[in-house]
Write a structure and sequence with these properties.
- Two copies of one chain form a homodimer.
- The first copy, chain A, is of the alpha/beta class and 339 residues long.
- Chain A contains twelve helices and twelve strands.
- In chain A, α7 links the parallel β3 and β4 (147-150).
- The radius of gyration of chain A is 26 Å and the shape is elongated.
- Chain A starts with 10 loop residues before the first helix and ends in a 10-residue tail after the last strand.
- Chains A and B meet through α4, α5, β2, α6 and α11 of A and α4, α5, β2, α6 and α11 of B.
- The structure holds a DNA duplex (16 and 16 nucleotides).
Amino acid sequence: MTEDSEKPVTSFDVARRAGVSRSMVSRAFTEGANISEKSREKVLKAAEELGYRVNFMARGLQTRQSNLVGIVASSLDTPFRSRQVRIAAREIISHGYRPILLTVEPDDDIEQWLSVMLNYNVAGVIVTSATPSPKIIQECRRLRTPLVLINRGKNQDIADTVQIDVQQAGELAYTMLTRSGAGRLAVVHPQTPSYSVTGRAHAFADKCSSENVEVKEFISANQSYAAGYDIGGNVGLALDRIDGVFCATDLLAMGVMDRLRADWNVRFPDDLQVVGCDDIEQAGWGAYQLSTMRQDAEEQVLAAVRQMSERIENPEMEIQHFNQMLTPIFRKTTLSSYD
Amino acid sequence: MTEDSEKPVTSFDVARRAGVSRSMVSRAFTEGANISEKSREKVLKAAEELGYRVNFMARGLQTRQSNLVGIVASSLDTPFRSRQVRIAAREIISHGYRPILLTVEPDDDIEQWLSVMLNYNVAGVIVTSATPSPKIIQECRRLRTPLVLINRGKNQDIADTVQIDVQQAGELAYTMLTRSGAGRLAVVHPQTPSYSVTGRAHAFADKCSSENVEVKEFISANQSYAAGYDIGGNVGLALDRIDGVFCATDLLAMGVMDRLRADWNVRFPDDLQVVGCDDIEQAGWGAYQLSTMRQDAEEQVLAAVRQMSERIENPEMEIQHFNQMLTPIFRKTTLSSYD
DNA sequence: ATGAAAGCGCTAACAG
DNA sequence: CTGTTAGCGCTTTCAT
């Protein structure tokens, strides 16, 4: 703190000042190292005076590990995603790692970025956006870098994963709608195939088929509010033939609702019941009060970080898959809750 | 790619395989190094075959710099903040750095985290949440680590900053409201002092005073939707004495609106005009159509990253302050726009 | 254009 | 409990 030297201060400087060896300096800054309390204090004092701080690059080089953990996420400014990332960052830190963030834009080459992360000797990577190619997944395995995929499906049995149970999701949506009296159903979901989003929509449609209830399908451009607003126009045209709609994301649901209110003066749930999915914060806002299915971001991220830690401890561990259940949230866009 | 050895492959292995020295391997992976095209290709080929990748820790140790840039952000799951972070991450990457993310929770000790970042020899830090203490700011300067503060005010002339012009913001809100016919004004803002948020509210109140128009003040618990919903109860009680309200954040505004609609059946803008601030995505949603003032996250972040880069290039550069202007966005919660 | 040699700052055996 | 001795994997003069 006091010095204002040009050269950065190293453990050597501290050692000299404290009158000990460099090893002692290292030990003083290492949890549970073999060092007497007296020496440690002496070192810490000298370090403080010199304004010393451990160089993590050097430490990492020696120990062969940075304690960096990569987070790969796209659409970071989407409510659900940003919540995931916030929780993930906090959780990663509380496990003693530092999150290094890779935000992926639609046209980005994940391979390349993921590859860069590996250069940093990351302790692990958590991916919650596009699915990396098998090639890069292999590369992670080769380097023994734990990789966990969130909501990318568990079909590929080569990485640990955490995902919602799309089957259960689809059936739950069906149940929520039918038990509150809806019988002429519809579903809106994006075109782009995605394990969790289109997956639950399809599961819903399948459930309808297996129960012999017809279901109208509306395909949106993507899973955003704007896309919901757009497709809402089509839903409006079919208003006389449906009384309940499942939207694959809350954002989509809110877009649909606003469009329907604006152009058809629809009242919810009287004119139409709607169920969303995710339970983002906005779903609870007064203007929507959307009935939905909660995808617990906290549970999901905790599971992912836990899987990662476990694999760090034991790289040979068998591949794990965590299946997450959604829970129904009844608000004001469905007529009644069931017990 | 082919090997499956236990030991990580190093530049030494590649060198041997390519029949050159380790220096050549290094050069092959360095932009614009002095190496013949032929040698480079030979090395690259050997590297590919071995599955070699440069160890950034070792490189960083040698060159004394990681190309990591820290982002310190709180309330990451707030719409405006997550947008900032997404843009910042993209921008940092496009400048050739990697973003390392520190999410700060209300009770966290920023000092400590910031301090950890310094251990990584970060090339720079961008802070967009709580203001670091002068002590840590000093520490950054001592270590010659560029630090730029977003929306923390420029009072402290010891770090580069980017912030909105609170004065202009307050006056703009006043103008938007009065020019569309509101004359009995109110402002809602959080208690916690914050440069940008409470700053603009105060500037608004000051402007009112200087124009001799009375202004009712409502203090919310924080700047969230929920806090807006709460304080909306108080606004409702004063409905007969106000016709225009400025909410210090869009979130607050939307909370207030929903409460007012729910409990007092208020119609906007007929019964009350409202202006928010930030222009988050939700402000444009059909249920709100909030008139607001846009705080351009992109412009803000680009400026911050630019300042950082410039300071990396030239550490002795004079301290810079970028003052951002807000632009009015007229939607449906004000009666008219002015030309 | 290339190779040899000397570290970057730290930790981890190994002795004592 | 402490000091000595070797590197970790890379870049970088400095010769050639």
